[in-house]
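Contributing new complexes? Match this layout with NAI.
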Amino acid sequence: MSAPRKKAAIIGGGVIGGGWAARFLLNGWDVAVFDPDPEAERKISEVISNARRALPALYDRAMPDEGSLSFHQHLAEAVSDADWVQESVPERLDLKHKVLGSLCDLAPDAAVIGSSTSGFKPSELNEKGARAVVAHPFNPVYLLPLVELVGEAEHTEKAASILRQIGMYPLTLRKEIDAHIADRLLEAVWRESLWLVKDGIATTEEIDDAIRMAFGIRWGQMGLFETYRIAGGEAGMKHFMAQFGPCLAWPWTKLMDVPEFTDELVDLIAGQSDAQSGHMSIRELERLRDDNIVGMVRSLKRTGSGAGGVVKAHEAALASGESKDGLPVTARRQVPTSWTDYNGHMNETHYLEAASQATDNLMAMVGADEKYVASGKSYFTVETHIRYLEEVHAGDQLTITSQVLAGEGKRLHLFHRLWRKDGTLAATVEKMLLHTDLTTRRACTPEDLVAKLVAQMVADHAGKHADGAARYVGQPRDTA
Ligand SMILES: NC(=O)C1=CN([C@@H]2O[C@H](COP(=O)(O)OP(=O)(O)OC[C@H]3O[C@@H](n4cnc5c(N)ncnc54)[C@H](O)[C@@H]3O)[C@@H](O)[C@H]2O)C=CC1
Ligand SMILES: C[N+](C)(C)CC(=O)CC(=O)[O-]
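Output block (do not edit by hand):
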């Protein structure tokens, strides 16, 4: 029997509440929303449909089945039986006090009560007796993993463990401070940028170029200190500080000086921003942003850096050990839009990509895992035959089973079946691999444990007829 679904109550479903709703929902939680805005349901549904095309595209494994989404007129109904309650109402302390007070009365005692506040400290949020932790996320909440946690250890530890389960990266603050860590950094850049526009030094677009053409990319993969360490050359951080420390005292920045938000300044910035990207709707901009984030985070997954490392670890935790028709399920994933082509279906290359993930997972199952490869032994593919049997579309969930047809000596003969969720066999991918010594680049027999596990799989799968195996290209479908 599967475990009962967890429930998240989202209180305030604007930009951030909508993102939280999508993050929980797409990780298999039921989500109940309370927001007095009559437009909340439409707005959240639009955010969730953007999230559906972006978040699963980060993963090479299918995510859990979505939970259910409901909207409620009464706070008590929304929070009933909730395991996590997330407050994301506008950033006003009096409003936060009122809402958090009610949540503490109505939510189950065991529920985590998180506040998305960007600036307030737990001591301020809880000064009227509430028990909230700050759980400050980043927009888009469904894609970016960071959540700054601030509060009592007993609450933050529980919150951190839940956040990891939904693929997020909790960063627990050592001390409470106004605006936590990240927004203090962002605020410095934001304030400085406003001055640069106000003083006519740069336009909004030129400032965005300065960030996206250089240090924004650097920050996204290593952060500030690690990239500056490299900037110090072989002498490292000490040299960097000696060289660039003195200029900190020069009047480069405006520091605490905040430009006054006069109508003139607001019009100047809003006008430049409209000229820069007013030709796109916010939802279109969100999709562009999401596609770019997905591409970047997927690259970071290869090295395990930053946000890519978080997705990699979460993906490993999604491994299920399932089987289907007596064969191991070696991959399960949702087809991202980026896998489809001008014919409106999954492009041929990605059948091989999906099967290749299944091969890697099967190799790990027989002991030829990352550690084995690092020790200098692996398998090389020497032949592949793909049969494209049915179309696959964006959003389809593929389940791949792998049959080991033969595995004596150096050879590993595999037969992958790619199943759609509706039970249709979409493709078969037959592969021959040779066990190889990575130092000599020549075929060799595997280590004993790998040979034994391969032999066991061959025996376990022997009774299954691999319909379509050993066919030649162009052979009529109805011939065996
Ligand atoms: N927008 C951003 O980039 C980020 C915002 N935050 C924080 O998230 C919180 C929410 O900000 P946004 O989502 O940007 O604001 P928003 O204005 O987009 O959404 C606020 C929502 O709360 C609803 N609301 C108002 N009173 C309510 C009540 N009594 N009960 C339930 N819902 C109520 C509104 O109808 C609205 O849908 C703030 O504390 C903010 O500091 C955190 C990270 C980033
Ligand atoms: C502008 N903001 C202070 C509300 C931004 C955040 O809190 C985090 C983010 O997503 O940039």
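Reviewers usually confirm one structural detail per submission. For this one: The chain has three domains: 7-180, 183-279, 322-461.
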